[in-house]
Design goal:
three-stranded antiparallel β-sheet; globular
Length: about 120
């Protein structure tokens, strides 16, 4: 079954990231992003506006943002890095309760998988 290119909304990851393959910042899957004071610039892709809107609704992890966007982890990290550089997003601090919960959950899951 052929797909109609006019109705397909798929954008190649390298087009979203302008050919970049590595994010500016090292981001972990469990890193939680909060809204910052900056605004996405006009040159950023629409996905950056979606990331911003999602984080304004509530803080979200890098993994959750990548899954919601459906563009893959590395492209999502690159877009999140762009937003961090523009101060649109800020990472959670180590004392943030959401970050603490995610770190404890990660440790518990790691222990479970290592024990088996």
């Amino acid at each position: 079954m052929a797909t109609d290119p006019d109705t397909t909304a798929f954008v190649r990851p390298y087009a979203l990231t302008r050919g970049r393959t590595r994010p500016q910042y090292r981001l972990r899957l469990e890193s939680v992003m909060h809204p910052g004071t900056g605004r996405p610039g006009p040159g950023l892709p629409e996905e950056c506006r979606r990331i911003t809107a999602l984080c304004r609704a509530r803080p979200r992890s890098v993994a959750e943002l990548a899954g919601t966007l459906g563009c893959g982890l590395t492209p999502a990290k690159i877009l999140i890095s762009d937003l961090l550089a523009a101060h649109v997003l800020i990472p959670a601090t180590a004392s943030d309760p959401d970050q603490d919960l995610l770190l404890r959950l990660r440790a518990a899951l790691t222990m479970k998988w290592l024990d088996e």
